[in-house]
Amino acid sequence: MLVLVMWSGYSQSQVCPLNIDWSSGTLTHWFAYTGNNAGGNGPSAIKQEYDSILPAPGGTIGATVILEYDAYKTTGIEVITSNYVDQLANLSAIPTISGYQYTTSVRIGSTLVDTGELPTGGYIRGLGMTFTVPPGPGSVPYTLTYAYALVMSNGFHPNNEQPQFSVTLLAGGSVVSCASPVHYLPTAKGPGGSLDTSDAKAQGFYIIPTMAPAPFTMAKAWSEVSINLAPYRGQQVSLIFEADNCVPGGHFAYAYVAIRSRCSVGLGAPVISGDTVLCSNMPVQYSVPAVYGEVYQWVVPPGWSVLPGGNSSPTVKVQTGITPGTLVLHTQYGCDTFLSSLNIVTTPPTIAGPIGGGTEVCTGVNSATLTSAGNLGSVLGWLATTDGADYTAINDTTLQYTALNLDRTTTFRAIIQNGSTCAVDTSSGATVVVDPVSIGGAISPTDLQYCKGEQVGAALSLAGQTGAPVDWQMSPDSVHWTDVTPVDTTETYTLSNMAASTFFRVLVQSGVCPADTSTAVEVNYVDVPYPQASHAPADTAICYGAIAPLRAEIDVGTNYAWTNAGTLTGTGDGTVNGLPDQLQVVAAPKGSTTYVLSIGNAGCPNSLLDSFIVAVYAPIVVNAGGDTSVTVGQPLQLNASSGDTTTAGGDSFSWAPATGLNNPSIANPVATYSTADSIRYLVTATASDGCRGSASLLVKIYSTGAGIFVPNAFTPGSGTNNIFRPVCVGIVGLTYFRVYNRWGQLVYETTQIGDGWDGRIDGHLAETGAYVWLVQGKTYLGEVITHRGTMILIR
């Protein structure tokens, strides 16, 4: 509300007017008024005035509280000296802003609204001070800084009727408009409408969630404003704060106001926040404290650019260039225009160079010096990992890091950054391989004997070592050792050409660790010839059910023995009768078998072992189909199949005899007969390897014509006639065959030719007696044949 009323101010020459900040705890030196805006806001709404030169209750001297107009129980203006949290807005009644702690504030307004019980219309409350600005040059700022926080209910009224808080500066009897803002919750354009929430939030308002329906009530956190009064040096000015309900009176507004105790402090160009040393070609953000109503214009250095979001807000996002420059901000707020600047230096992006010093060490006491080189930036620290996933931070910012006494292979990286604004980069890794301590292990067997001329089977094996064999060594006395020739780095060493007992050991080394020797074993030399023999064949393959001849010639030896002798014939008695001794046996295994011929020579503890591997092909199982019956002149399709899967393209087939067959050399010939007979065919399948399998089937040929014949009795459980089935002659399909007991209950049913009833019902023996049967089938000529009858079950 605009008030053009002057009160007799308190003459003062102090830097700040007395009690400008209500530091006395009272409203002394301030004037106040209350009223009702039923007729609208303006001077006519003022109903009660409180002069600054009279004591309370008529004036403000010594007053701490002023009640709402014509509502004598509700506080309209109140001095606050003890801080608390507003129960609606959850904000402090006395603020701390930018590090400045205010000590006192006033609360102007209340939540009181027109309820119909009080005078119609809303409540207004105003508080002001009139003082003389100290004389002096207008170029020297004389500022007064105040802070305010608001709580307002939204009335959904036109903006000029909404609850409001106003600040009015009067100089020379006129309103200084640039220092006299009016705050309200904006609504949509027109005579009234919904709350413009986005505009309200842009002004700093936030929704109070506890007030329903949201957003019915909103609040604005503490904001700070400075007014430069230097243009009014030596003049009298008035500063007035006013909080008004909505014009209809049903929606409230109240404000907290605090004023700094020092003048000529707080006004000036806003300080730009942000880094002054930047990485080139990177996005960065700068900002100044936001003040609603302030106008901003950012100017970036040449070669820089403003990122999306614009340059007209208190925050700007820019893309830095390569060259340094000055960031400039033009700010206009109220009656003043400011120029802020920030000098910025650019630096190239971070480069993390390679790490040198990767090496191999032995576990225990060791060291490895890692060097970070080729960087653009400084070392922030080092990282170490033993698994490539989990890293341990090392607090070392030097270019060289010395790792000591590593016990596991470790990869090291350096963390590099070129200035605080450039991105952190991590170098490639350098690995220090840590080898475990060499352990020689043990040689087995420990009781090996070696016969004269032994060339096979005599071998030593190394186990339990850490590291790799460097070479095998031998010694006649376990004191003087020499390396074997040629060098042998395997874990198994085969003995040959020995002429005396000898000690053996292995030299083992783990990476760069000192080598270690294994246990030593002595191989005892036996001066008896080692058995000698030749054998054939080493490996052979036979068909299932076939035999394989095995042959061997013993040149040195006195005895022999066979394994798996149960499938061998002609093995002899195991005694060598003369040299050379010829052995000839026949193997007849049912499956693949390895036969081992063990040959001994009296006096030599070691046997010569010769192996014969006989592979047996799987049997070829042939299916010729089931026995069948046909009539004279009826074509019969035969189908044979083989279970052999080893032959590409399948086996070849032959039928015998060839009587009635159109082609006896295929798997599926067609048979046709001119006379009644009974023929049993044998079909043979031959694989590509020559292995064979066969099967047979019986064909009965009737001259009676196609029909279904059912016996009149059967004896389940006997050796013959123990399945009750229909005999189908010339029948290509059985529609059904059913058997019923004397009560008409179905006891058996099938549609498969050749199937029949075994005389059981649900697994139990059926009773002796008469049963009824029904049968239907189709002949090869398409004729349907149906019969029924009875049969006697006999036990």
Concise structural overview:
With 795 residues, the protein is mostly beta strands. It is 1% helix and 47% strand.
Description:
- The protein folds into seven domains: 229 residues; 71 residues, Immunoglobulin-like (Sandwich); 81 residues, Immunoglobulins (Immunoglobulin-like, Sandwich), CATH 2.60.40.10; 86 residues, Immunoglobulins (Immunoglobulin-like, Sandwich), CATH 2.60.40; 83 residues, Immunoglobulin-like, CATH 2.60.40; 81 residues, Immunoglobulins (Immunoglobulin-like); 86 residues, Immunoglobulin-like, CATH 2.60.40.
- It is elongated, with a radius of gyration of 57 Å.
- The protein is mainly beta.
- The N terminus is likely disordered.
- Strands 1, 2, 3, 9, 11, 12, 13 and 16 form an eight-stranded mixed sheet that branches. Strands 4-5-8-17-10-15-14 form a seven-stranded antiparallel sheet.
- Helices cover 1% and strands 47% of the residues.
What is the strand and helix layout of this fold?
Blueprint: E1 31-36, E2 46-55, E3 59-61, E4 65-68, E5 71-80, E6 96-97, E7 100-101, E8 105-110, E9 123-132, E10 143-153, E11 164-171, E12 174-175, E13 182-184, H1 197-202, E14 205-207, E15 217-228, E16 236-244, E17 253-259, E18 277-279, E19 283-287, E20 295-299, E21 305-306, E22 315-319, E23 325-333, E24 336-347, E25 355-356, E26 359-362, E27 367-372, E28 378-385, E29 391-394, E30 400-404, E31 410-417, E32 425-426, E33 430-435, E34 442-444, E35 449-452, E36 459-463, E37 468-475, E38 482-483, E39 492-494, E40 502-509, E41 516-517, E42 521-529, E43 532-536, E44 539-542, E45 548-556, E46 559-562, E47 568-569, E48 581-587, E49 593-600, E50 608-616, E51 622-623, E52 628-631, E53 636-637, E54 641-642, E55 652-656, E56 670-671, E57 677-686, E58 692-702, E59 707-709, E60 713-714, E61 727-729, E62 731-740, E63 746-750, E64 760-761, E65 764-765, E66 769-779, E67 784-793
Parallel strand pairs: 2-3, 18-24, 26-33, 35-42, 44-50, 52-58, 60-67
Antiparallel strand pairs: 1-2, 1-9, 4-5, 5-8, 6-7, 8-17, 9-16, 10-15, 10-17, 11-12, 11-13, 11-16, 14-15, 19-22, 20-23, 21-22, 23-24, 25-27, 27-30, 28-29, 28-31, 31-32, 31-33, 34-36, 36-39, 37-38, 37-40, 40-41, 40-42, 43-45, 45-48, 46-49, 47-48, 49-50, 51-54, 53-56, 55-57, 57-58, 59-61, 62-63, ...
